[in-house]
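Try this one yourself first.
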């Protein structure tokens, strides 16, 4: 069962991973 908090945390985690990848590229 997915809750709003879980979905929000998952989205935030994905965004953080993208930022980290961008930093590595730069």
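Now uncover the answer:
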């Amino acid at each position: 069962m997915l809750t709003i908090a879980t979905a929000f945390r998952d989205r935030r985690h994905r965004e953080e991973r993208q930022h980290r990848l961008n930093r590595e590229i730069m």
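Discussion: The chain has one domain: 1-25. The longest helix spans residues 4-25.
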